[in-house]
Specification:
The structure holds two protein chains of two kinds. Chain A is of the alpha+beta class. Chain A is built from five helices and nine strands. Classes of the chains: A alpha+beta, B mainly alpha. At the A-B interface, helix 1 and helix 2 of A face helix 4 of B.
Chain lengths: ~230, ~210
């Protein structure tokens, strides 16, 4: 910094340097808090809306939802799940009858974590829909896991037991087979693996079919806000 | 005269001193987010907001900021604008924000932006600094867009998500992948240098002809 000092005839005092940086930091901090506070409601609302839309998309015929968590050995209804607590969403139809679960799952993909949501009917043990929530797969290749309608449609009636298997494109024969994507085998297999892992993780915790928690009164509206 | 001067500052960034093609700055976002035209535009607009905003502030306070702490001050100003851009994009266009991911916060580290503060905004009046920032950001946006458009057309057969070719078109997957960024940038830089070479040659020819004419 000596060259800079030479350029400036009278070197400013250290106090002035410290004060300049402190004021700059203070103003910057206030600006950042301001923008954070003013955008937070929109961002939270966006996220909640995205989740609702995804739940209704992966569970056909569902128009209401509530968050369910596993506490003290059973599945309970919670209005607001705690942060980082594993959660599934119960989907209910117009009459409030239980239809199925929307299960969030995440795992490593080709480039970064893939987060997805799939609809699961416990009675039929079938996956009825899949939606990718977050992924950074290669554009044009790996992103076909959500851009390729044929691939997404593979998950509309899929048996999860014994497990879903990704097979070479065009060779799917059984109802637990998924046609992988040519050129994006890793991403396609990652999706299948995430669903299998999530299914196994929750299999023991979900209640027996027919004994799902009923739609709680205060949660009834959480899904109808459109 | 004054008008010409600011016009000159605006135009130089777009063509003659184009930050990417001539100064070869800002390569990280250039190669990373240009796999589609729409991403390129979003990145260009975010960078433009940050560059113009920070050039304005830096130029306005150029007599207040002591030389010894100027770089820290520039970074604080740039980082504030980047955070504002980050949250605004997240609130308004969450889809685009998702695509750009980590590259929005990384605008802070774009040497193009810090470079303009140090080389121009901290030395010139506010009006010229803003014109310079607009020009440089415009040039950056143009460069991002030309790379993004070429890569999306060749690598995906589409532009802004609209299919351009029939089903028979086999996309050049490599253009979408990182190597495609280097290939496209290399070809464009080749063109710019060829153009400059030809221009110099032409000017030399003209000078030669004038001399022999006399």
């Amino acid at each position: 910094m000596s060259s800079d000092a030479n350029r400036q005839p009278a070197a400013p005092s250290s106090l002035r340097l410290v004060m300049t940086l402190a004021i700059a930091g203070l103003v910057s901090g206030i600006a950042i808090i301001g923008i954070y506070e003013s955008t937070l409601p929109t961002i939270t609302a966006n996220k909640a809306r995205e989740l609702r839309e995804a739940v209704f998309k992966v569970l056909p015929g569902v128009s209401r939802m509530q968050a369910l968590v596993y506490r003290d050995g059973r599945i309970v209804v919670v209005p607001e799940p705690e942060k980082d607590e594993p959660v599934v969403y119960g989907g209910y139809d117009e009459q409030g009858e239980f239809v199925g679960y929307a299960m969030p799952g995440a795992g490593p993909g080709f480039q970064d974590t893939i987060a997805l949501l799939y609809g699961y009917l416990p009675r039929d043990k079938k996956v009825v829909g899949m939606e990718i929530l977050e992924s950074r797969e290669t554009p044009g290749l790996g992103d076909k896991i959500y851009k390729d309608a044929d691939f997404v449609a593979e998950f509309s009636a899929l048996s999860v037991e014994p497990e879903i298997v990704a097979v070479k494109k065009g060779t799917a024969t059984l109802d637990n087979h998924v046609d992988a994507i040519t050129g994006a085998t890793i991403s396609a297999k990652a999706v299948v693996r995430i669903i299998n892992e999530t299914h196994v993780a929750w299999a023991e915790q979900l209640p027996a079919p027919g004994t799902e928690p009923p739609l709680a009164g205060d949660a009834a509206d959480s899904g109808t806000g459109q | 005269m004054k008008k010409n001067e600011s016009y000159e500052e605006l135009v130089k960034g777009i063509w003659r001193d184009n930050p990417v093609f001539v100064q070869v700055l800002g390569m990280c976002p250039m190669l990373a987010v240009t796999n589609s035209a729409i991403n390129a535009i979003a990145m260009g607009m975010a960078s433009m907001f940050v560059l113009v905003g920070s050039s304005f502030l830096v130029s306005t306070f150029r007599h207040v900021i002591p030389k010894q702490v100027r770089i820290s001050c520039f970074i604080i100003i740039i980082a504030t604008f980047v955070t504002i851009a980050d949250y605004t994009l997240l609130a308004l266009v969450p889809k685009v924000h998702k695509e750009l991911g980590a590259f929005i916060p990384l605008i802070v580290a774009n040497c193009l932006i810090l470079g303009r503060q140090e080389a121009f905004a901290s030395r010139y009046p506010t009006k010229l600094a803003v014109m310079d920032a607009l020009g440089m950001a415009g040039g950056f946006l143009l460069a991002l867009l030309s790379l993004g458009a070429v890569r999306e057309i060749l690598g995906d057969g589409a532009l802004f998500g609209v299919r351009l070719f029939s089903e028979n078109f086999e996309p050049w997957i490599v253009m979408i992948l990182p190597p495609g960024g280097f290939l496209t940038l290399g070809v464009i830089l080749l063109f710019f240098n060829w153009f400059k070479y030809k221009k110099d040659e032409f000017l030399a020819d003209v000078a030669e002809a004038e001399r022999s004419g006399n």
